[in-house]
């Protein structure tokens, strides 16, 4: 895998981690305060965030270890699969709520740098 792509992947992974941490600390508490019935949905999303952190850590470790392209692609495939299901679930469960929720605070605090 080319060095430019690895630098991009590291930057994207860092931004994704920051986004999830911001959601966990900022957005999700606001959602559950306004819609306590969504607590199980938020718990599932936080669980996904934790899984993605684990996968991103494994990918970073593979990069640091100088893993071959096939190994790096397997890591990326796993991350991509979880992201796809996570974002689909998040959109199906929260999109309507987010359209109506009057959020308090700076979007970057609530959503991270991907906002």
Textual characterization of the structure:
The chain is mostly helical. It has one domain (3-114). The chain has helices spanning 3-34, 39-64, 69-100, 107-111. The longest helix is centred in the N-terminal third of the chain and has 32 residues, at 3-34. The mean pLDDT is 87.
Task: Describe the protein's topology.
Layout: H1 3-34, H2 39-64, H3 69-100, H4 107-111
N- and C-termini, Cα separation: 28 Å
Main beta-sheet annotation = none
| Helix/sheet category | mainly alpha
Indicate the overall shape.
elongated
Count of domains: 1
What radius of gyration results from the CA coordinates? 16 Å
Helix amount: over 70%
H and E string: HHHH
Strand runs, count: 0
- What is the tally of helical segments? 4
Q: What percentage of amino acids are in beta strands?
A: under 5%
Q: Note poorly predicted spans.
A: none
What would the average pLDDT be, to the nearest integer?
87
Brief summary:
This protein is mainly α and 115 residues long. Helix content is 83%, strand content 0%. It is elongated.
Any descriptors?
mainly alpha, 115 residues, elongated, 4 helices
